[in-house]
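Look over this today:
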Amino acid sequence: MTAPAFSPTECLGRGLALLFALAIIVVIAFFVLDEANARFGVLALSVVIVTLTQPLAHGRWGRAGWLIDGALIAAFAYAGFWFFAVKQQLFTGFYMPNPSNVAAGIAGMVALILLTARAWGLSLVIMALVFIAFGFAGPSLPGLLEHFGMEIGDFMQIAWYSFDGVFGRTTGLVADNVLIFLIFGAVLERTGAGESLIHISTALTARIRGGAAHAAIVASAVFGMMSGSVAANIAGTGVFTIPMIKRQGFSANFAGAVETAASSGGQLTPPIMAAAVFVMADLVGMPFALVIVAAALPALFKYIGLFAQVYAEAVRLDIKTLPRDQIPQLTARDWLNSALVFLPIAALMATFISGKSPAMAGLVGVLTAIVTGLILNPDFRRDPGRILTALTEGGISAAQIMLAVGVIGIVLAVVNETGVAIRFATSIASVGDSNLILALVLAMCGALILGMGLPTLPAYLIIAIMIAPAIIKAGVLPLAAHMFVLYFAVYSSIVPPIAYGCYVAAPIAGGNPLQTAFVALRISIVGLLVPYVFVFSPSLLLVAGEFSWSELIYTILRLLAAVWMFATSLGGADPRLARLGLGQRSLRFAIGAAAMIPVLSFWAPACLAALAIGLFSPKPKQQTI
C-alpha cells in the first residue's frame, strides 16, 4: 500500500508528534518534571502539533492559512512567556492581573479554543463559550443560574493563571497517566493485533447465527477500550467489521449500529476503559484496581445484551451459521498470533497489579506490544518503520486530547468560580429526596446532552464535575454515581440527533445515520439500563458500599432474564418460535421490564415467567442454532 503523501508542514508536525510520543515514554521511564513546566510544555507542544498536522493552508484559506497558523502559535508562545513570568506569583498566591498578562492569557486561550475546534469540531468549543458567557452574565441570569459574575481579570486568573483551569489538576492527571495509553492503542493496532483478533473471533463465532456480527463485537470491544474515541474506533475497525456483517445478510443500518454499539461499549470495558478509569479513580478517591473490578460485570452484561440482540436479529432474518467448509480453521500459528493482543494487555495488567503507576503499566504495555509484534509478525519485523508510524499517530492523538482537556479546564474553572455545580447538585438532590428515579433520569438527560459530540474522556470530565455530585447528594454511592455518568457520557455517541458515532459508521455501511442511531439504541437497551441496575443494586459493582452475595446473585438472575426477554421482544424472533407476533413481543418486553425492577414482587415472577417461556415454548420441527 502506498503511504499517504504529506506536505512539508505536515511532515514537520508528524516529526514533532513522534518526538512528543518519545518524550512521554522517556519521562515515564526516567524523569520527574516540575508539574507547572510539564503541564505547560505538554499543551504548548500539542498546540504546535495540531497546527502543523492540520494546517489551514491546505484548505480554502490558501496563503492566509499560513498567517493564521503562525499567529496561533505566536499567540500561545506569547501567553507562555507571561505564564512563566508570573509563575512564582502563582505559587505564592500573590498573582495580580494587569493589562499585559490578561491580554497574553486571552491570546493563549483563543489559540487553544480555535485549535480544539480544528481537532474535534465545534461541540466542545460551543460548550466552553456557553460556560464563559454564563460566567460573565451571572448577575443578569434568572433564578438558579444567577451568581455574582466575573470580571475579565478574575476570569483570566482562575482559567489561565491558576492551577484550577487550563493548567489544572485534570490537565496534569491526563498528561501523567492517560497519554501513554493512546500511544499503546496506536502501537497495538500497527502490530497486526486487529487483524489477528478479527480472524480468531470470526473462527470462534462462525458456528453461531450472526457469527460475523459477534466477531465484530469482540474486536471493537477490545480496541474500543484503548482508543479513547468512539468515532476513532469505528473508523479503525469498522472498515473491516461492517462489510463482514453485511456479507452475512444483515442490513446496512444494522451493521453500522452493531459496530457503533460495540465501539461505544469498548469505552466502558476494563481494564483500560479508554483511560477514563484513571481519572475516575482520582475523582472518587479509590485505587485504580478497585475501579477496574467494579466495571467488570456491568460491561459484561452490556455485551451479553448486545450478543443476544444480534442473535435474535439473525433468527428473524433466518441467517444460518456458516457452512462447515467456509468456517476459518484456526492453526497453531493463529493461536500464537493471538499473543499480539493478549500478551501486551496481560503485561500491562501484571505491572499495574504489582503496584506500579498507571503510566509505568502503560509503558510496559507499549514495549511489550512492540517486542511481540517484532517477534510474531513478519510484516512488522520487515518494516520497523511501522513502530515510528505508530508512535507518531499516538503522539498526534495525545496532542489532540490534551487540547480538549485544556478547554475542559476553562469550563471547570467557571464551574468552580460560579458554584453552579453545587446549586445544580442541590436541585437534583432535592428531587432525589422524593424520587430517586426522576433524579437519575434528569442526570441521564444532562449527561447525554453534555456529552454529545465529545470524545470519552472530555465528556466524562465535564459530566463528572457537573452531574455526579448531584446524584451523590441524592443518595447514590460515589463510585456508582461516577460509573452512571460515564455510561451516559459514552452513550451520547449513539443518541439522536447528534449520534456522532452513527454518522461515522453509516457511510462505511452505506446506511442512514439517523436510522442507524435508532437501531443502535434498540440493541443497546441492556447497556442503557445497566447503570440504573447498579445504582439500586450496587453489589453488581462488587466493591461499592456493603457488598451482598444475595443481592449480587438475584441481580445477575434478573439481568439474564431481562437480556433474553428484551432481545426476543425487540428483535421480534425466538429460536424456538421463529418470528414473534405483536402480542408475544409485548408480553416479553413487559417481563423484561419487570425483571429490571429491584422489588421482589416484580423481578421474581418475571424471572419465573422468562424461565417458563424458555423451557416450555414449543420447538419447531427443524431447529437451527
In short: The mean pLDDT is 87. Residues 548-620 form one domain. Residues 135 and 184 are 38 Å apart (CA to CA).
